[in-house]
């Protein structure tokens, strides 16, 4: 992290027999909008016919070697800032099941289509010790990667974690994607928590995120400035959710 995207190429798998081409047009237009917003240039792409719709981007950029932000830089005493609310996996599952309305769909779409550009630029401007994104392994999975790479323990205050609307309610109903259970099965050995089995908040922490936010580790002064900058420019919730301690590498403590 800490670089600038320059060029992007579309990667598309599309079921021509099952979906109208207008769907593909909308997807490519949306991708181009985000590429332009990020300040990059679309230079082509690759497409194949597939039974399952898939879309992504191959991106090339530049980063100064002295400004690369790694997930291995967290230090004892650091605070941890999350730059987007959690819940996209759970809410997407609810939408696919026909349980959530149009307003909620718009809410999570807004979250997923918000670039991490503001947070990244704030972090680059102020400085930080470490950073990771939060995507398919959920908050706990990516926090573990940071803790393990940095040879520290991470403490998370679950009451401070920002959530998308209705996330807790749907999690309480058991509307939880399969990926969250797989994440828990793999990562729970490194987690210490005084929570009931299948506690909704615990499962939310394992929820795989699509286009999630960043988890930033830095001094109290750095985190305060980054948080202030993000909140002045972005309407999504961000919050300080924990801190870094000395401890067995990779340990995650939920309080």
How would you describe this protein?
The structure is a single chain. Helices cover 38% and strands 23% of the residues. The model has no long low-confidence stretch (mean pLDDT 94). The longest helix has 17 residues, at 21-37. It contains nine helices and ten strands. The strands form two sheets. It has a seven-stranded mixed beta sheet, with helices on both faces. It has a three-stranded mixed beta sheet with strand order 2-1-3, covered by helices on one side. α4 (117-126) runs antiparallel to α9, α5 (138-150) packs parallel to α7 (178-187) and α7 (178-187) packs across α8 (200-206). With 255 residues, it is α/β, with parallel strands linked by helices. It has two domains: 4-62, 60s Ribosomal Protein L30, Chain: A, CATH 3.30.1330; 79-254, PurM-like C-terminal domain (Phosphoribosyl-aminoimidazole Synthetase, Chain A, domain 2). The chain has helices spanning 21-37, 88-96, 102-112, 117-126, 138-150, 167-172, 178-187, 200-206, 220-233; strands at 4-14, 41-49, 54-62, 79-82, 130-133, 153-156, 191-193, 214-218, 239-245, 252-254.
By CATH, the superfamily of the largest domain comes out as: PurM-like C-terminal domain
Shape, please?
globular
Instruction: State the CATH topology of the largest domain.
Output: Phosphoribosyl-aminoimidazole Synthetase, Chain A, domain 2
Biggest β-sheet: strands ordered side by side in the sheet: 5-8-4-9-6-10-7
CATH architecture label name of the largest domain: Alpha-Beta Complex
Please tally the β strands and state the result: 10
Average pLDDT taken over every residue: 94
Distance between the termini: 29 Å
